[in-house]
Amino acid sequence: MRLPINLLCLALSILPSARSVLLDEAYSVDYHHELLGIPQLQTTFFHQPRKHDKATLLYTLSDLGVLGAVNPATGKVVWRQLLGDGSSEAGHLRPVEGEDAVVSALGNRIVAWDAMSGRELWGTVFGGTVRDLEVMETVAGSKDSTDTLALFQEDGKAVVRRLAGANGDVVWEHKDASGDAPLQVSTNAMHVFVVALHGSAGSYNLKVTVLDPATGKRTNEYTLVTKADIHAPEDVLLVGANSAAPIIAWTDRALKTLKVNILGKSGDIQSLPLKESDGSIVKVTLLAPNLVQSKSDFLVHSHSAKSNRADVYHIDLASGSIKKTYELPKLAGQGAISLSSRDANVYFTRITEDEVLIFSSSSHGILGRWPLKVEGSHGSFLYGASEVVQKSSDTYAVRSALVSTEQNWVLVRNGAEGWVRPEGLSGAVAAEWAELPESESLAKNLEVEAESNPVSAYIHRVNRHINDLQYLPEYLQNLPMRFLSSILPVDAVAPKVGIPVRDSFGFNKIVVVATQRGRVYGLDAGNQGRIIWSATAFPQAGGKTWDVKGIWVDNGKGHTTIRGAEGEYTLVNTTSGKKIESMPAGSWPTVRNTAVVNSPSGQWVLPIGVDGNPGEVPLEWAPNDSLVVLGDNGDVKGLKFEGQGVNAQPEVTWTFTPPAGLRITNVIHRPIHDPVASIGRVLGDRTVLYKYLNPNIVLVTAVSDEASAASFYLLDTISGDILYSTTHEGVDTKQPIASALTENWFAYSLWGDISPTTTDSLPSSKGYQIVISEMYESDIPNDRGPQGAAVNSSSLEPSEVPNAEPAVPHVITQTYLTPEAISHMSVTSTRQGITTRQLLCTIASNNAIVGIPRTILDPRRPVGRDPTALEQEEGIFRYHPMIEFDPKLVLTHQREVIGVKDVIASPAVLESTSLLFAYGIDIFGTRVAPSAAFDILGKGFNKLSLVATVLALWVGVVVLAPMVRRKQINGRWITS
């Protein structure tokens, strides 16, 4: 009987059709926190990026030297530029009013940027360091209103340069040979003022030099006597610029009097009393407009330990006197006040603990008032930038971008929260993976049942199951969604907000991140890097950074230990961030590094001193294994703890000192989790090259700046023997030199000479290169080397022959060229080590992370010939010296991940998958499958079609079964 044509068409229609790979699928398993850093008060503002467009963007130059433009409506980054190296170096940023540009300065470089696209318009580099930057709005005798004034400190002298707004050329420069420390530059419609610190540290006077803006010639100079008040540049509160009456202000040491000088009026210092409330004043800030057409008003914001208040003053341009206009009352908390100008109007926006208010500088009347409604806990608001818009004669709107004590950047629009950027997460200096703890109640119940007799255990289990029935309604309620999410091609259930739970694939993990500002974060790697918790560990004073030396996660207890360089440490709960224990700086000796060690009492993190000496420890906490440390004399030492009574002392077992002229820059070891699935490499003829799998090895990098050379040493950590060494000539030691060590191979990258003797196809030249080396027990297949017949082996006694040489590995090396420098290297990690490893390379110039497969880096690829049939069976292909960073190798795709310091890997439950986490200025995480996802269905797999196909086949069987039986019966009758 023939199959009905309609049933056949139904079955074919259910089969899935061909699908293309969509662009958005590349971003489904990774996440990216595109960060800027903490915005600074003087370098954050709203600005119109186009002359004839009313819309504005929010600009900032952060404490990490990242310049960015943010869409104030959504909080998304429009564009950004990394100006420095990510360090906390003070920068300057100014808008060019009425123009489509902003101007920045950091270090010795000044750049003008297109305000809309972030494209560089012009840039110039000078000697010394930029101390201040201002844009001249109007200049006497000149039609150009966009020139830039830059104040430099060069060779201990102050240099002022006026740069043309069109191309950055120097119009004029003025040098001060007195040796005074330059502080700031200011300008009004007729003069340029240069403020410098005159005298010795701890007792400064203020020297003001007046220059002609057209020629740069000095026209006047006077000194303000401030020795009793100004001891450091931070004591000067404000030097106004581009105002009709620019001022310089400071306070006395007791914070009881504010002293103000209107620039250009020599010897005229006006004293304004600072009113105390709720105790002594602890902080004073000044806000003044930066537009020439704005009213000459300014605000003094005073803080005590419990409250804050403000006074508004007006400067009479005719008489030069300063009078108080009104005051803002005392309110509890810190509070934030920001200033905004539009034409001649000056507005002050006050953000309190529960409301937002707008004032004009002319009157104390409230122009606008809204209750403050923010989601989550941001702490108190410290400072910010505001934009006030007058919609009608008596209606105003305001939006403020505020920095909070929790280091969040929050936009408040008419009192309501618009968006939040977790900028405190930027500047990460250390991170570690953490497993999610299992259910404590279930673990305890199983432990009780395991220790009971069978009858008691059975009764206990029945009671436990009866108790679990209370969760049955919730389970039944979620069952339809679970069923739909399991068969639909997309997730039907939105991710839950809260503490993550373990999943069967091992994707849900926590990443503990420590930042340079002293904060600690917990991120959910299985939910787009969502911040689960954040806490302050050790707040850092201005200009200082937290030097974290180690993070160790105790997955059994759910605790995380973080140790700093000054002896401080903190112990927090991994899932909640709750502080369990903490010791301040100075509690322990200074720490150079840390090591996670195994001891009779379990694993713990051992601090190592600056001289490489960890000191004595209790005997029960003494490390079981040898340690490798850096000494204070530029050497590497092996340590072994020996018991002496109740304590154990570290004893030096060996010392490695590099040759004269070389200094050690890096020492790396194999990853803690580094499983090996196969002890050998099977060749095409079915013979085996046995891998050299020594867990006790380190790779030492040493460089010589004078000789432009780099040497690499492979050391045995038990005996200190050199197992392998190599030297490269013509190396630029200022370029990054990265390395990685795993399984039986290691790799490193550098910029230097490419010797023609390395390979036959490489001419003598210079360039960026990756050197890959594989280690085997012997160069002869099926040979285990000198220790092949030994049941046990020892690094201290490698042979029965006295004083025998160590059994060194057979090393196969190859060199490849790369188009760009590699700043960091690491390796993927899987659960069993079956999946082929991938070399992870950070490309700082492209702000990208590249994953290079091991097959490309195979050092056995034939040079100058095609592979033989046997070599093709191994998967080897012809050697080509250049490795192009193909877009398919870029793990970050089109994202720009800036300032990456490290990339750490963690295995998932699935053998095919490795979890990656990159941190630095940005945060980036993803999942990679170097050998393809062979143990999980892909996102494009249509589960619904599979279920429908099975159902259709079942229907077909039900329909056809009676027909087949009838045909068989009829056939038997016919044959009989």
What would you say this structure looks like, in words?
This protein has 976 residues and is mostly beta strands. It is 9% helix and 43% strand. The strands form 17 sheets. A four-stranded antiparallel beta sheet has the order 1-63-62-61, with no helix packed on it. A four-stranded antiparallel beta sheet has the order 2-3-4-5, with no helix packed on it. A four-stranded antiparallel beta sheet has the order 6-7-8-9, with no helix packed on it. A hairpin with a 2-residue loop joins strand 11 and strand 12 (157-163). Helix 1 (5-14) packs antiparallel against helix 6 (943-975) and helix 2 (440-451) runs antiparallel to helix 3 (454-468).
Largest sheet: 4 strands, antiparallel
How far is it from the N-terminal to the C-terminal residue, by CA? 21 Å
Main-sheet strand order equals 1-63-62-61
Q: What is the overall silhouette?
A: globular
Radius of gyration: 34 Å
Mind sketching the topology for me?
Layout (H helix, E strand, L loop, with lengths): L4 H10 L16 E3 L5 E9 L9 E6 L3 E5 L6 E6 L8 E5 L5 E6 L2 E6 L5 E6 L3 E7 L12 E7 L2 E7 L6 E7 L4 E7 L4 E9 L2 E9 L6 E7 L11 E4 L7 E5 L5 E6 L7 E4 L7 E7 L9 E8 L2 E9 L6 E11 L3 E7 L2 E7 L3 E6 L5 E6 L9 E10 L5 E9 L4 E5 L2 E6 L6 E7 L5 H12 L2 H15 L3 H16 L22 E6 L3 E6 L5 E7 L11 E7 L4 E6 L4 E5 L5 E5 L7 E9 L2 E8 L7 E2 L8 E4 L5 E9 L2 E10 L6 E7 L10 E3 L5 E3 L6 E8 L4 E8 L5 E8 L8 E5 L2 E10 L10 E12 L33 E9 L5 E4 L10 E6 L4 E6 L15 H5 L26 E8 L6 E7 L2 E6 L14 H33 L1
Antiparallel strand pairs: 1-63, 2-3, 3-4, 4-5, 6-7, 7-8, 8-9, 10-11, 11-12, 12-13, 14-15, 15-16, 16-17, 18-19, 19-20, 20-21, 22-23, 23-24, 24-25, 26-27, 27-28, 28-29, 30-31, 31-32, 32-33, 34-35, 35-36, 36-37, 38-39, 39-40, 40-41, 42-43, 44-47, 45-46, 46-47, 48-51, 49-50, 51-52, 52-53, 54-55, ...
Helix pairs in contact: 1-6, 2-3
